[in-house]
Structures are given as structure tokens and as C-alpha cells.
Specification:
By secondary structure, the chain is of the alpha/beta class. It has ten helices and 14 strands. The strands form three sheets. Strands 11-10-9-12-13-14 form a six-stranded parallel sheet, sandwiched between helices. It has a five-stranded antiparallel sheet with strand order 7-3-5-6-8. The longest helix has 14 residues, at 147-160.
Length: 324
């Protein structure tokens, strides 16, 4: 993406659900402690889509987009450890750092977050502490743009506390699901991937899935029980925003299984799970949302080390003007 002049840039504003407007506006002034980044790539998150579709209410108008990579073009006078020209990943949620959650290691649930303008623009202005340098020169901007969603996935997988040799059921083989699968494999798990779309299951196999289940014609629970000798999955992640899918996954769990509801469910639908299933099997049903700076650091490290393959998850590349 490039600006049309030395002092102007493009920014895509969401004015109301269903309506973007491309605007020309001045490039941001850089103050103390701030960094100006020329955006290279920005992914489209399901959260962006929900806001665009009017399924989630946020203050509008605003510039969306938060899965971004780029290059530093200017730094504030007191920024010492970053340099103009560095290739970076940018975090677009500014944590307060002083609330109870931040002080207890849960900055992903900061009680007073701040949201600067997003990355659907030529340049973004962020606090220096929200900048993560790309250390490996062979890491592409495209790959680095996956750091934010991978950081959320990394947090979700950490919460499952996988041990080598355990079995994880992953329901939903979209980009998020396939990143979950790769992290689970890195933690030593055997992974069963379930989806309805054959293309996604084929990609899951290419990226290392141990077993795939086509839920349009196969029995998910039967497959899990066959793989585990009737014991069930030690862990499960549901990346599909449908309550009934969560219920089905719960029925596939082993004793002391851990189930992560990773996807937001809109519209909200009550979850129907037999409480005795949770009680007698000692199941842990949890969720995870967003990430901490430490998760960001780990995620970028996975990408730079080539441990998580993300560029194969890209379906389309579009210019800013085609965002809508």
C-alpha cells in the first residue's frame, strides 16, 4: 500500500454496518513514545466481519483491521530500541498495564484497553511497546501478518496444558483451526481435525493432521473413539461459532478432558450440555480470547522459526480499495 503524496494517506473507514468509505487524510504526527508504521499487509478477522455485518456493536465510524505487518517509517524522540526501516508486526490493542487483570498476567482481558485506528490504512500510529520486530530477514510480511491471530491461538493452546501423546479434537479447519492444529502438534499431541469442507481437510492433512473427519458423511464421535481406543479426546478446540457443535465435541471427551470454546457465537445461542457429563468425567469447559504481549512474542517466534506454516492459509489478496 502506498500513499498518494508525501503528506497524505488512504484510510478505509467503516461508517456504519455494511458501508466502508475510502478517505484521503493527513499522515499522523508522531509524538513521544510513538511509532509510525507503513502497513504492508492486514488480515481480515471474523471480528471485523461481525462488526461490518452489524452482528457486533462497536463505536463507529472507525478504521478496522488489526492483523498487520509493516515497516517503521518514523519514531518518537524517546523511542530508543526501535529503528526506522525495521520490519515489524503491530499490535492494535493497547493494554493499560495497571489494572488488576494486567497485573495478574491476564492483560488479554485488560479492563481499560485502548483501540487506536486500525490497519486498513497506509500508515498506522502505535505506542512503541505495541511493536514487535521481525528478527528473521526471510520471514515475509505476509507471514508476519498472521502473528495476531496466531497469538490468540497460542494462548488457547497453552490453556489446554497438552502433554506429549495426548489426543486433541479440533472442530473447524479454517485458518484459525489449522493454526490450532499446528500448535497442538508442536506441543506433542495427536490431532483429529473435523470439518464439512473437503478442501480444508486436504489442507489439514498437508499441514500435519493425524486424522481427518468429514462431518458431512462421517461420525465424529465414532472416529474419536476408534482413534483413542474408546477413551475419548484429552482436549478439544471448537473454532466454529455454533453451540450445537460445542455440545457434540463435549460428547467426545475423555475423563479430565479440556474443552476450549474458541469461537464467539453470534447470535448467542444457549449451550446444552449434560451437567452430569461434566461432573462424572471431570471435564474442564473453558474459553480463550485475545492474547498477551508474551503470546504475541511466542507466535511471531513460531512463524519466524518456520514451525507454523501460515502463508498456505491465504485464500485471497486484495488492494485496500477492494476491502468491502
Amino acid at each position: 500500500m502506498t500513499a498518494n503524496s508525501e503528506h497524505a494517506m488512504r484510510a478505509m473507514w467503516l461508517l456504519e454496518p455494511g458501508r466502508f468509505e475510502l478517505r484521503q487524510q493527513p499522515i499522523y504526527d508522531v509524538g513521544p513514545g510513538q511509532v509510525l508504521v507503513r502497513i504492508a499487509y492486514c488480515g481480515i478477522c471474523p471480528w471485523d466481519v461481525r462488526v461490518y455485518a452489524g452482528k457486533k456493536s462497536v463505536p463507529l465510524p472507525r478504521i478496522m483491521g488489526h492483523e498487520a505487518s509493516g515497516r517503521i517509517v518514523k519514531i518518537g524522540e524517546d523511542v530508543r530500541h526501535l529503528e526506522v526501516g525495521q520490519r515489524v508486526m503491530a499490535d492494535f490493542i493497547v493494554k493499560c498495564g495497571v489494572c488488576a487483570n494486567c497485573r495478574r498476567g491476564r492483560s488479554n482481558r485488560c479492563l481499560h484497553p485502548r483501540f487506536p485506528n486500525g490497519a486498513y490504512e497506509d500508515f498506522a500510529l502505535l505506542p512503541y511497546r505495541n511493536i514487535h520486530p521481525i528478527q528473521n530477514e526471510t520471514t515475509s510480511f505476509k507471514a508476519a501478518a498472521f502473528t495476531e491471530p496466531l497469538s490468540c491461538v497460542t494462548r488457547g493452546q497453552k490453556m489446554l496444558r497438552l502433554s506429549p501423546g495426548e489426543v486433541e479434537l479440533l472442530v473447524g479447519a479454517g485458518p484459525i483451526g489449522l493454526m490450532h492444529m499446528q500448535i497442538a502438534k508442536l506441543f506433542g499431541a495427536q490431532v483429529i481435525v473435523a470439518d464439512l469442507i473437503q478442501e480444508r481437510l486436504e489442507l489439514a492433512k498437508q499441514l500435519g493432521a493425524d486424522v481427518v473427519v468429514d462431518n458431512s458423511k462421517e461420525d465424529q464421535k465414532k472416529t474419536v473413539m476408534n482413534v483413542t481406543g474408546g477413551r475419548g479426546a484429552d482436549a478439544a478446540v471448537v473454532t466454529v461459532g455454533v453451540s450445537s457443535v460445542v455440545t457434540q465435541a463435549a460428547g467426545c471427551m475423555a475423563d479430565a478432558g479440556r474443552l476450549n470454546i474458541f469461537a464467539g457465537i453470534y447470535p448467542v445461542t444457549p449451550l446444552e450440555i449434560d451437567p452430569n457429563l461434566i461432573h462424572y468425567k471431570e471435564l474442564v469447559v473453558t474459553g480463550s480470547a485475545d492474547s498477551t504481549p508474551e503470546d504475541m512474542h511466542d507466535a511471531l517466534g513460531w512463524i519466524e522459526a518456520g514451525k507454523v506454516k501460515v502463508e498456505k492459509l491465504i485464500s485471497h489478496q486484495l488492494p485496500l480499495e477492494k476491502l468491502q
